[in-house]
UniProtKB/TrEMBL annotation:
Residue span(s) of domain ABC transporter: 1-208
Organism from which the protein derives: Couchioplanes caeruleus subsp. caeruleus
Protein known as: ABC transporter domain-containing protein
GO molecular function, one term: ATP hydrolysis activity
Alphabetized UniProt keyword annotations: ATP-binding, Nucleotide-binding
InterPro entries, A to Z: AAA+_ATPase, ABC_transporter-like_ATP-bd, ABC_transporter-like_CS, P-loop_NTPase
Database matches in PROSITE patterns: ABC_TRANSPORTER_1, ABC_TRANSPORTER_2
C-alpha cells in the first residue's frame, strides 16, 4: 500500500471499491489497527475508543451459538447482562437471526454465518465500523436491510462506516463517499456523485428490443434525429446513449412510433458504469 492519505469523519459512509487484489482488504485492516504499516501511521481520534470490525473471512467461535458469538465481543467491551442481551436481540432481529439464535454457528449456512459476522460488528455500537465485503453471501433483501441500517447509523448517530463491496449498485444507494483502490494506491477519494459525473459516459441510455428483421430500420430512424448519437446494436437490442435532456424525448418518440418495438427501458449511469468505464470494461466487476 502506498499514497494512501484518508481522513474519515463521523457521518461518513465510505464505499471502498476496486478489483480483486487491489488492496481493499489490506487498507481496511490497516484502518482497523489489525495490520501495522511499515511506513506512515494510522491515527485514531480520541473519541474512538474501539472499532467495530467485520472481516472478509469467518471470524467466529465455532463452539458457541449465534447469540453467544454476538455477546462475546460485547463482554470484551464490558457490556453484559440485560444491556448486552438487548443489543444482541436488536441485531438478530435486524439480520433475521432470531430463528437460529440458539444454533451453533458451525451448523449455519454461508449467508447466515455472514450475517453473524455483521451482527457482531454492529452490536458493539462503535463510532467507527469497518466491514470487509459484509454483503458477501447475502440475498438482495438482506443486503438492502444491512446497508440501510448502516446508512441510518451514519445519519442519526454520526457513525463512520467504511465498507468494501463489489456490489456497486447497492453501494451507490447509501455511500456518500467513494475511495477507489488500484494496485495498492488510492486513485480516487471524493463524493459518490462526483465519481460518476467525472467519467465521460452517457448519463442516460435508452435500450430498445425490436423485431429481428427491423433492427436496421429502427437504427436508421434514430439516425434521422438532428444531433442524435450513434446507436449500438447487439442482436435485437439497440442502445442509444443520451447526452442531453432535449434528446431523450426525441429518441423515445421515434422508438415508440415504431410498430416493431417490443420493449423499452431507460437506464441512468451509475457507480458501476463509471467504474467499468475507467477500465474500458464491460460485464461483471471482479
Amino acid at each position: 500500500m502506498r499514497d494512501i492519505d484518508l481522513d474519515i469523519n463521523g457521518g461518513d459512509f465510505v464505499g471502498v471499491i476496486g478489483s480483486n487484489g487491489a488492496g481493499k482488504s489490506t487498507m481496511l485492516s490497516l484502518c482497523a489497527g489489525l495490520t501495522r504499516p511499515t511506513e506512515g501511521s494510522v491515527i485514531r481520534g480520541r473519541m474512538v475508543p474501539y472499532i467495530g470490525w467485520c472481516p472478509q473471512r469467518d471470524l467466529v467461535d465455532w463452539s458457541l451459538t449465534v447469540r453467544q458469538n454476538i455477546l462475546l465481543p460485547l463482554a470484551v467491551l464490558g457490556v453484559t447482562g440485560a444491556q448486552a442481551r438487548s443489543r444482541a436481540a436488536e441485531v438478530m432481529e435486524l439480520l433475521d437471526l432470531k430463528g437460529v439464535a440458539s444454533r451453533q454457528v458451525e451448523l449455519l449456512s454461508g449467508g447466515q454465518l455472514r450475517r453473524v459476522q455483521v451482527a457482531r460488528a454492529i452490536a458493539t455500537r462503535a463510532s467507527v465500523l469497518i466491514l470487509d465485503e459484509p454483503a458477501s453471501g447475502l440475498d438482495p433483501e438482506g443486503t438492502d436491510r444491512v446497508y440501510r441500517y448502516l446508512a441510518e447509523l451514519t445519519r442519526k448517530s454520526r457513525t463512520a462506516v467504511l465498507i468494501s463491496s463489489h456490489d456497486l449498485g447497492a453501494l451507490e444507494t447509501v455511500a456518500n463517499r467513494v475511495v477507489e483502490i488500484s494496485e495498492g494506491r488510492c486513485v480516487y477519494d471524493g463524493h459518490t456523485a462526483e465519481y460518476v459525473s467525472q467519467i465521460d459516459i452517457a448519463p442516460t441510455t435508452v435500450i430498445a428490443t425490436v423485431s429481428e428483421h427491423a433492427v436496421d430500420q429502427v437504427v436508421a430512424s434514430i439516425a434521422k434525429i438532428d444531433g442524435a448519437p450513434c446507436p449500438s446494436q447487439e442482436g435485437r437490442i439497440v442502445s442509444i446513449p443520451i447526452f442531453s435532456a432535449r434528446m431523450l424525448p426525441a429518441v423515445l418518440g421515434a422508438l415508440t412510433a415504431s410498430e416493431h418495438l417490443e420493449s423499452l427501458t431507460v437506464e441512468k449511469a451509475g457507480l458501476r458504469d463509471a467504474y467499468l468505464a475507467t477500465r474500458g470494461q464491460s460485464g461483471d466487476l471482479t
